[in-house]
Amino acid sequence: MTTPLADLWPGPLPAPAVRTADEMRCVLADPAAPCDGPLYFMYRDCALTPEDSAWLGGQGVRFDLTVIPPAVIGGEYVKTKGHYHPENPAGVGYPEVYQVLAGEAHYLLQRKDLSDVVAVTARSGEFVFIPPGYGHVTVNPGKEVLVMANLVSTRFSSEYGVYEERRGAAYYEMEGGAWVRNARYGAVPEIREIRAQEVPEFGIRHGRGIYDLVAGPADLSFLNEPERMVVA
Ligand SMILES: O=P(O)(O)OC[C@H]1O[C@](O)(CO)[C@@H](O)[C@@H]1O
User: Which residue numbers delimit the Glucose-6-phosphate isomerase prokaryote domain (predicted)?
Assistant: First the structure.
């Protein structure tokens, strides 16, 4: 694949982790849908300079880039596999920050107890904050390549169990934009559809570059110690 990252990321790129069609079947609305090859590409632990890399390491934070080419699989828009984050030592789930760099994204967030399901639309330049306790899937609902970046703690491994056991998130986004309930969840709330929102207290303002949060003076400790933050 010719990476669209060349125009978006001037730094070195590690070899990407690739999510294959076979890995994704267990979370698709139609696991038997024809699809093959890699579906998306995750460039994890990126930094512009060795100094930035050391700073990120000291913060216990990773900067990733993800490329999701457009596709429709069995009538469903291409998406990430979906995962939850565990709780930190203080008993609070690790949050995450995403920014869309190109294309459009729908972030489907679901609270662990399934009391809340939210679809957040984000366009190029907009941030999405994944609050503690919410699992998340990113959908590419467009015809463009979706490129996004994220900042996340390095102190945990993502948890895929719920998504694998229940065959994806609580809803599937189908071509044309309809959200279809996943019957394996039983009763779940209606989706709340919202636009991407800023979180100024963490320096999360649409239009600024996510990489501006790297190497200070920003403080990324909220990604490891969310118990210290108060989000309105
Ligand atoms: O692990 P999944 O559900 O495939 O999601 C991939 C996304 O999650 C991340 O690991 C960050 O949490 C990114 O590298 C990538 O965009």
Answer: 19-188
pLDDT band at 232 (very low <50, low <70, confident <90, very high): very low
Is 168 within 8 Å of 179 (Cβ atoms)?
no
With the CA atoms of 225, 155, 4 and 33 taken in that order, what torsion angle do they form, in degrees rounded to the nearest 10? -110
Other C-beta atoms within 10 Å of 90: how many? 10
- Cβ of 183: how many Cβ atoms within 10 Å? 8
Q: What structural domains and CATH numbers belong to the chain?
A: 13-198 (2.60.120.10)
Q: Over 50: is that where the pLDDT of 91 sits?
A: yes
Q: If you average pLDDT over residues 138-158, what whole number do you get?
A: 97
Start-to-end Cα distance in the chain: 41
1: pLDDT strictly greater than 60: no
Of 18, 19, 44, 66, the one to substitute when testing ligand 1's pocket (max ligand atoms within 8 A of C-beta) is 66
Distance 43 CA to ligand 1 centre (A): 10
> Which tens digit of pLDDT belongs to each residue from 46-58?
999 999 999 999 9
Q: How far is the CA of 80 from the centre of ligand 1 (A)?
A: 7
Using a 6 Å cutoff on CB, does residue 140 contact ligand 1? no
Q: Mean pLDDT of all residues in the chain?
A: 94
Residue reference for tokens 């490329």: 67
